[in-house]
Amino acid sequence: MNENQYPVHGAGLGLRRTLLGPLSDQPPAQVDFMEVAPENWIGVGGHLGKRFRTFTERYDFVCHGLSLSLGGPSPLDEAFLHRLKRFLNEHDVRCYSEHLSYCSDDGHLYDLMPIPFTAEAVTYVADRIRRTQEILERRIAIENVSYYAAPGKEMDEITFINAVLEEADCDLLLDVNNIYVNSVNHGYDANEFLKALPVERIAYVHVAGHYNEDKDLIVDTHGADVIDPVWRMLESAYEHFGVIPTLLERDFNIPPLPELLGEVDIIVQLQEKWSQAHDDLAQHA
């Protein structure tokens, strides 16, 4: 993708219900787009639905799903996909993404479980992604996820992700925090992993915080500030791929809005820095 092909631009912020009031009182100039989990808003009407509508009319929106369970054994929830399609169209949502994982079997597992890195799983999940895109009548993006075990592994993570992207012909939601987390937990080179991803499929980027359980075990929580090594991963992405729309994820322990926007400011600063760096490089080429 070139800059004009991205579904959104600039710096983004995940919209949580606790932020509705503060963001309405002080609309932040540095936020270009917002993201919600559609499961939290589909079918919501009344006063809350109207407040949400004021945000989707003011900002570009993307949606990041929680429950589709692309790698799960249960049949794809096509009834949900039809409700989702109406919601995405109603609010002019620019991009829909889901996790490259599964979260349900006979019931909801309330966690993101790793898909086995096997050729059979590539075919299985790619078929479900293609069916999802067929129903929604739009391309979707899949997110590289954090994982803590790799049962039945036949290939490495990067090979698996790239195979799914190719076979499903879908886009990538690049989570730089998850790359960093997995690189520590599974002992691989984060920058080499990053460079092996297909830039032409990246839709936008997630950056988030995590919890250090031990020196070689990090838990992905989205409940803390972004740490310096993850900011450096974001810079590596900008250096290697060019500046990409980037969203700050914060799901728990949400700080006061000014503190949260301070991290969005860092995204903006890094985007400006690397835009200038690429412009300078192009002028001297």
In a nutshell, what does this entry contain?
With 285 residues, the chain is of the alpha/beta class.
Can you give a write-up of this model?
The chain has 285 residues and is an alpha/beta fold. It has one domain (3-284): TIM Barrel. The chain contains 9 helices and 12 strands. An 8-stranded parallel barrel has the order 1-2-3-4-7-8-9-12, surrounded by 4 helices. The chain has a two-stranded antiparallel ribbon with strand order 5-6. It has a two-stranded antiparallel ribbon with strand order 10-11. Strand 10 and strand 11 form a beta hairpin. It is globular, with a radius of gyration of 18 Å. Mean pLDDT is 88; it is low at 104-112 and 213-217.
Tag the structure with descriptive keywords:
285 residues, alpha/beta, TIM Barrel, 8-stranded parallel barrel, two-stranded antiparallel sheet, 9 helices, globular
- Alpha carbon gap, first and last residue: 21 Å
- What is the total number of structural domains? 1
Corresponding CATH architecture: Alpha-Beta Barrel
Query: Count the strands?
Result: 12
Q: Which word captures the global form? A: globular
- The fraction of residues assigned to DSSP E strands is 15-25%
